[in-house]
Amino acid sequence: MAQTAVMGAGSWGTAFAMVLADAGNDVRLWGRRPELCETINAKHENSDYLPGIALPKEITATHDPAEAMAGAEIVVLAVPSQQLRDNLVSWSEHVPADAVIVSLMKGVELGTHKRMSEVIAEITGAGPERIAVVSGPNLAREIANREPAASVVACEDQGVAERLQKLCHTASFRPYSMTDVVGCELAGTAKNIIGLAVGVCVGLGYGDNTKASVITRGLAETARLGAAIGADPVTFMGLAGMGDLVATCSSPLSRNRTFGEKLGQGMSVEEVMGQTSQVAEGVKSCVSVSELAKLHGVEMPIVEHVAALIAGEMSPDELVSRLISRQAKPETV
Ligand SMILES: NC(=O)C1=CN([C@@H]2O[C@H](COP(=O)(O)OP(=O)(O)OC[C@H]3O[C@@H](n4cnc5c(N)ncnc54)[C@H](O)[C@@H]3O)[C@@H](O)[C@H]2O)C=CC1
Ligand SMILES: O=C(CO)COP(=O)(O)O
Predict the structure, then answer these.
(1) Is 256 annotated as a binding residue?
(2) How far is residue 184's CA from residue 173's CA, in Å, rounded to a whole number?
(3) Which residues belong to the active site?
(4) Running DSSP on this structure, what letter comes out for residue 22?
(5) Atom of ligand 1 at shortest distance to CA of 33?
(6) Which ligand is nearest to the CA of 107?
(7) What residue ranges of the chain are covered by domains with CATH 1.10.1040.10?
(8) Helix, strand, coil % (nearest 5) of the chain?
(9) What mean pLDDT is predicted for residues 156-178?
(10) What EC number(s) is this enzyme filed under (predicted)?
(11) For ligand 2, what atom is nearest to the CA of residue 195?
(12) Would the annotation count 281 as a binding residue?
């Protein structure tokens, strides 16, 4: 068992802190707002993000990053992807030199096109044997309700992945280990964008054939970019790929799918933003992933159309009709 720090007390940071505590670890949860930390410590509940869920007593919250990470063997990062860089710059002096840094985030940075593990390596100087990713079909509320689910722990060092796997294996959470960090991160990021597209179709009133078509072709274009950036193609068939895509695209709990659904119903991006208190990563990552694909000469039509929709360059109806009327071709990845 280990001393762990979870940096980010939103829905997934808190739910994953529960997983770590259930697995027998000591958990310090860093929260941005002191008053939320006080409530968590006093009431053992994160009333803002997971209301009604009793947190294990082993979780203590703090607003002080130095206190959160003091002596931590495992540092878990759970803030919105576009906010990671700024936070990590201010936290890096407190990250213990030998701690394994675990990303829960599912996004690609705007401007740099870097995956979160690349941002972590750049800012902390940690080598690949100290950087890991957890990703899979893990909607925070279901995990916090201790509904059974599987996930993937990826680290280039298989031994480190296996250690983390043991540290977060509980009676309801079953992690698998793997070494494909690139594939895991890309799959997690792209599924948010495909989830937005599926949500748009749901909002327009389309049914399961449409959803399944977008999911399947979404996975194909994700795997295409994966092949270009060095991912293992098998990852896209696994929990971080197909698994997470199905969970996100099927569930009303998904913020990305819900965001898309509201767009499909006719709301503007600004209107939906105004109603959304939690992060829908695909809204930003559609731009960075679309640019990354272009840099690698890879076509990602669904991602590109979602980026155009978010930029206000096309309507939900146009998104669907333009994708359907693309030139006919063989079904290849
Ligand atoms: N919620 C879920 O079901 C899952 C989320 N994820 C990923 O985990 C990451 C975190 O997501 P959630 O916890 O769900 O998001 P959230 O929106 O529920 O919470 C985000 C947390 O980051 C904090 N935050 C926001 N802006 C910040 C800033 N500028 N500086 C520092 N902290 C800031 C918020 O106060 C909050 O504590 C995302 O990349 C998401 O895609 C991954 C798997 C499941
Ligand atoms: O990543 C998730 C489930 O695995 C959560 O999806 P949303 O961010 O769309 O809610």
Answers:
(1) yes
(2) 18
(3) 191
(4) H
(5) 35
(6) 1
(7) 182-324
(8) 55, 15, 35
(9) 98
(10) 1.1.1.94
(11) 9
(12) yes
